[in-house]
Design a protein that fits this description.
The complex is a heterodimer. Chain A is an alpha/beta fold. Chain A has six helices and seven strands, in the order βααβββαβααββα. In chain A, the strands form two sheets. Chain A has a five-stranded parallel β-sheet with strand order 2-1-3-5-7, with helices on both faces. Chain B is of the alpha/beta class. The termini of chain B are far apart. The chains are: A alpha/beta, B alpha/beta.
Chain lengths: 178, 667
């Protein structure tokens, strides 16, 4: 049987979940023996190929995040969310407490280090969505590994469960929201 | 109580009439998840985590408010109730802004623990992300309303236990919020800063500014000790990590002394003051300089020996009896002086003198009742005392009595309208007319036939006959009608308690004490040898010090040549006292913190703070004996107070025996 293919994607998040993935250390060699990692935030493919497991980190914040997420969903059989941002929206949703225009003004004009700031307006740049959402509020997500970031142990647990043909649900003692 | 029998999860169990379904579950070891329930508080069914399926009911019901009855068939673990519990959790997380990753409470949070238990790895509902306020204007407490699940534990503990009713819910529905008074900031509200709400809060909504982000509380070691401040004698649980105090909690939040107070819960932690870690002596230029212990002891010892019986020793009665005893032993044996007093010793002398004049049999505070008498009282006379400031738990007791027993509260005070929101009437006698007022009260009780339990002595009736309400009014400015009303209220009450304090003894007028005891006795407020009268003694171990006789003698403090002042971590900021200290020729101060007192001293010796002290015995203001324990290791090289006294004694050529308990009284 061919090795299952996986791809990971990074939306609005800090990359901490991917760091935690790397924190599984030498076990990553076992993972690579068992699966093919076809795409990740360090590859630069514009679209996903057909894969078995899609993994997503980060909340849905911009039009690009939404596009990436929908593309990944369309190309994978099982979609797994990593980390509080993808599972719950996480720290990124604190933007929802403010008006979008206020966020732009604060970030691009009022920050203490900014002189003659300008809010970027190019069409090339993805647009901020009105509200930040967790992945499962945009597409169907099959399983979740929460944590900020999830521990390497939790990430490894999720992968092993999938490889064994089970949909992972973290046991209570492995659950972390921080 | 009638026993009832129910079937829970297929098991026959029993409870009692009046139990809720949750009570029966708890009694039978059946685990039901809860967030808003707290032992000792009224159940309100706010969080809905405890829902159970009860046969015959149309829908699931919260077990904490559902009265158990004979024959009920209850299911606590069906798929249906578990499904709803998880749904309720998801709704709680979407209702406000819960960000565990930077929340102070993460790891200690009951909401988080509950979500872990229910393996809540995603939320199906849209987040409301409301804009919520953070109130950080209180000295010790802060509230982040975004983390509040509206369980109401803070509201109930504030109302039912601290009985101050500062916190309550404001607004309705989605907008419901916990508010202080009429939606003020906590800092500008009637909040007493007892911190009970902090300990009751299951989430990070209410947090302590002093303990914030120090560590996870579940990783702390817990040590119980006795509060060294006011003499109520509250038990404290001190949470420590790596020899640092993280937080102070009440061992039983909803127990009698549960709320603790701002001084015990927070004041003990807030030491912004600079510690004294090394002995100091004043050099030739008049500057205080650090020196070795040997040099300091030499300097102190030689002068003290010279002055001998003229040397005076004053000790803080916040220290345990063991230390006080060694201090007395040191003064008498090594220094050879009987001039020993405690801070606040005049209270003892006034109380003792006043009690002796009342009855030859009892000599002092033994005649007083226990402070929990206040909780049973239906009338309280608060005389010259401000327990809100000095003994906050006593104030809480008084408020509870007003709440629960509809007790009448009468304040008699020259200046302050103490507890204005709680008292029924404030009698404000003109200065130095308090005795007239009390005589007037007794006279009304005598003339209206309100004397209970004993015959009023004819001599007393005779001597007070002239104190009729009209005359009292002209002498004290207290309205005659008010006077009569108060006398009747007090005289007719079934269990009336008199609480008095500093205002009674600060003019050294022991007649007031005698009058108060007479008032209680004549109106039948007596249980055997004890009268329902309590004096709010100045410090945690005042009674312990008095038992040792450390305040027995009224010293003339006008021309003190030499003084040994052991204040340890007590703060002295009274200008009068500071002025007096400056007149002393030779001053030795043993203290924990640098202060105006130590900068006046000729020799300064270091002292451990309350938490570093070896354990010892405290006698509470109502005579209850409690133990204190060492909570953390003293700062490096710091000796215990007794050890320094022993060393100093050795220097003066006298070896203090280690196990001899010495009374400081006149022998």
């Amino acid at each position: 049987m061919a090795k299952p293919k996986i791809a990971t994607a990074w939306m609005a998040g800090c990359a901490g979940c991917h760091m935690s993935f790397l924190d599984i250390d030498e076990k990553i060699l076992d993972v690579v023996k068992l699966v093919d990692i076809t795409a990740s935030p360090i590859t630069d493919f514009k679209h996903f190929e057909q894969i078995d497991v899609g993994i997503v980190e980060g909340a849905v914040n911009t039009t690009k995040d939404e596009e990436v997420l929908r593309d990944l969903r369309a190309h994978c059989k099982i979609l797994m969310a990593w980390g509080d941002c993808a599972c719950f929206g996480g720290i990124v949703t604190s933007r929802n407490m403010f008006d979008k225009a206020d966020c732009f003004r604060r970030a691009y004009i009022e920050t203490e280090s900014t002189v003659q700031g300008k809010i970027p307006s190019s069409d090339e740049i993805p647009k901020l969505l009105d509200r930040v959402k967790p992945a499962n509020h945009v597409v169907k997500v099959d399983c979740f590994v929460p944590g900020c970031p999830p521990s390497a142990k939790a990430i490894f647990y999720g992968l092993v469960e999938l490889l064994n043909g089970r949909i992972p649900v973290l046991p209570a003692d492995m659950m972390r929201f921080d | 109580m009638k026993e009832i029998s129910l079937t829970i999860d297929g098991k026959k169990v029993t409870g009692h009439e009046g139990d809720t379904v949750l009570d029966v579950c708890r009694k039978n070891g059946i685990d039901v998840p809860t967030l808003c329930e707290m032992k000792g508080l009224t159940n309100v069914g706010a969080c809905r985590m405890c829902v159970v399926d009860i046969e015959g009911e149309r829908r699931i019901n919260p077990s904490c408010t559902y009265p158990a009855r004979d024959g009920l068939v209850v299911h606590t673990k069906t798929e249906k109730v578990e499904k709803y519990r998880r749904l309720i959790l998801e709704l709680m997380f979407t209702e406000k802004n819960h960000y565990c990753m930077y929340c102070e409470k993460s790891g200690d949070c009951e909401l988080q623990a509950m979500a872990y238990r229910y393996q809540m790895d995603n939320v199906r509902y849209p987040y409301t992300t409301p804009t919520t306020a953070v109130d950080s204007l209180s000295e010790y407490l802060a509230i982040d309303h975004g983390r509040c699940i509206l369980c109401g534990r803070c509201v109930r503990v504030c109302g039912e236990i601290e009985a101050n009713h500062t916190l309550d819910f404001a607004k309705r529905g989605w907008k419901t919020v916990v508010a202080a008074d009429l939606a003020q900031s906590l800092g500008g509200s009637s909040c007493t800063q007892c911190g009970a709400c902090l300990q009751a809060c299951p989430t990070g909504a209410i947090f302590s500014k002093l303990s914030l982000y120090k560590t996870k509380l579940k990783e702390c070691q817990r040590v119980k000790t006795t509060c060294p401040i006011c003499g109520v004698g509250c038990e404290l649980t001190v949470l420590i990590k790596d020899n640092n105090i993280v937080m102070i909690e009440a061992p039983q939040l909803t127990g009698e002394k549960g709320p603790l107070c701002r001084m015990g819960r927070f004041g003990l932690l807030a030491d912004g003051h600079k510690r004294i870690t090394s002995p100091m002596i004043r050099d030739k230029e008049g500057k205080l300089k650090e020196c070795t212990l040997d040099e300091a002891l030499e300097a102190a010892g030689s002068r003290m020996k010279k002055l001998g019986k003229n040397f005076t020793g004053v000790v803080s009665s916040r220290l345990p009896s063991e230390t006080l005893s060694v201090f007395c032993q040191f003064m008498k044996q090594a220094v050879g002086s009987n001039r020993i007093d405690t801070m606040g010793g005049e209270a003892f002398r006034v109380i003792t003198e006043g009690t002796k004049a009342f009855s030859k049999k009892s000599e002092g505070p033994e005649i007083e009742c226990a402070i929990d008498e206040i909780l049973k009282a239906d009338c309280i006379l608060l005389v010259g005392a401000d327990p809100v400031k000095t003994h906050p738990i006593v104030a809480s007791f008084i408020r509870r009595a007003v709440d629960r027993n509809q007790a009448q509260l009468v304040v008699i005070d020259l200046q302050n309208d103490v507890m204005p929101l709680w008292r029924d009437v404030w009698l404000k006698p003109r200065a130095s007319s308090e005795a007239t007022l009390l005589n007037g009260l007794i006279n009304v009780i005598l003339s209206k036939g309100l004397v209970k339990g004993k015959e009023a002595p004819a001599k007393l009736i005779q001597s007070l006959s002239e104190y009729n309400p009209k005359r009292v009014q002209s002498d004290t400015d207290v309205d005659a009608a008010d006077l009569e009303m108060v006398a009747e209220t007090y005289g007719k009450a079934k269990r009336a308690v008199i609480v008095y304090g500093q205002g009674v003894w600060h003019n050294r007028n022991s007649i007031l004490v005698t009058d108060l005891l007479n008032l209680a006795d004549l109106s039948g407020n007596r249980d055997g040898d004890r009268l329902r009268v309590i004096s709010l003694k100045p410090a945690a171990n005042s009674r312990g010090a008095w038992n040792l006789g450390a305040a027995a003698k009224d010293l003339s403090l006008n021309h003190v040549q030499g003084l040994y002042l052991l204040i340890s971590d007590e703060q002295v900021d009274n200008d009068e006292v500071l002025g007096w200290l400056r007149t002393i020729d030779f001053l030795v101060v043993q203290a924990s913190y640098r202060s105006a007192v130590t900068s006046t001293a000729d020799v300064v010796l270091p002292s451990p703070i309350w938490a570093e002290r070896d354990g010892g015995q405290y006698v509470s203001l109502d005579g209850h004996v409690a133990k204190s324990y060492r909570v953390i290791e003293p700062k490096t090289g710091l000796l215990q107070d007794q050890e320094i006294l022993r060393e100093l004694s050795k220097k003066m050529g006298h070896e203090l025996s280690s196990d001899q308990e010495v009374s400081c009284g006149q022998t």
